[in-house]
């Protein structure tokens, strides 16, 4: 596996060098940990994380391990408590800079994720793990940059999709001032179409945020949730440790809105070959046993507690292709307004896969401060 990883890393490094020769990489935070961890993946991420309360039963239906009771009595983690009957889902979107492993380097990539913290992987009733529902990797110039890293991550036991994460050249984009407001969008790329325009690129989630006047959480909250060991798809776990203790960290607590669409609702498009088929819209549209045809962006009114954003055109597929596709209902969670978030530049060390008990025992508690 190490030979495969090194080969793929080399290929994507070359792809990244072609892109960076055209447009300089965004001058984000430096990677100062590579020299101390030459055989591990290291990088620096300028990212934004948001905590979204989702009905516990809905979250449990997506996670194959028990959920831990939340430590809401710990006011350093949950100073305002947490909504009853809900469990946190963690969203992240950011710009990953100066990615290194051994003597190899990738200038930059975009990254996003939807994950569930406080999962009882060891079933001991106390040790918290992070279960990734979906990870996304995007290029800073084009989607081609993300293909090889996606293959690498999948081979190593992480569920990853190629994505378009906007803005391409920064962690987030300013959209208004007074107060300063920012946004980022994560869209999974199912069928790209760089030639004529529209492709099958469904929205994963959007974040729209400002600096929080009355933060819902603390910096320690995010340090703790982000650094819980990750559960991999191969029965192993991984420490993916972030350090937020540098002069360039620039920590800011956020308040904002998150728009979630599948796969969090359990209806992520499944692709076999180059074809995709999704089910009918919840309130109107064709039969759920037939393809959906969308000719424009469709919205559900926020007053109904739902918003579904489709940023692609999905044409009807030939009935002969039906065996190659999966029909899936679209049942988005509500738009989450006035939620708590955190923006920071953190240096990251990705350790090799290990047993879940080992990953928990070796967790660097200094990263949680």
Order of the strands making up the biggest sheet: 1-2-3-4-5-7-8-12-13
Overall pLDDT level:
74
- Please tell me how large the radius of gyration is: 20 Å
Unreliable segments of 5+ consecutive residues: 1-27, 191-199, 263-334
What proportion strand? 25-35%
Question: What structural class is derived from the secondary structure elements?
Answer: alpha+beta
The overall strand count is 13
Overall shape: it is: globular
The residue fraction in helices comes out at 10-25%
Tell me what the structure shows.
The chain is α+β, with helices and mostly antiparallel strands and 369 residues long. Helices cover 14% and strands 32% of the residues. It is built from five helices and 13 strands. A hairpin with a 4-residue loop joins strand 6 (173-176) and strand 7. The relative contact order is 0.18. The model is unreliable at 1-27, 191-199 and 263-334 (pLDDT under 50).
Write the layout of secondary structure elements.
Blueprint: H1 2-22, E1 41-55, H2 56-60, E2 86-101, E3 104-119, E4 129-138, H3 144-155, E5 160-166, E6 173-176, E7 181-188, E8 203-211, H4 219-226, E9 230-231, E10 237-238, E11 240-243, E12 252-260, E13 336-350, H5 356-361
Parallel strand pairs: 4-5
Antiparallel strand pairs: 1-2, 1-13, 2-3, 3-4, 5-7, 6-7, 7-8, 8-12, 9-10, 11-13, 12-13
Helix pairs in contact: 1-3
Defining key terms:
alpha+beta, 5 helices, 369 residues, two-stranded antiparallel ribbon
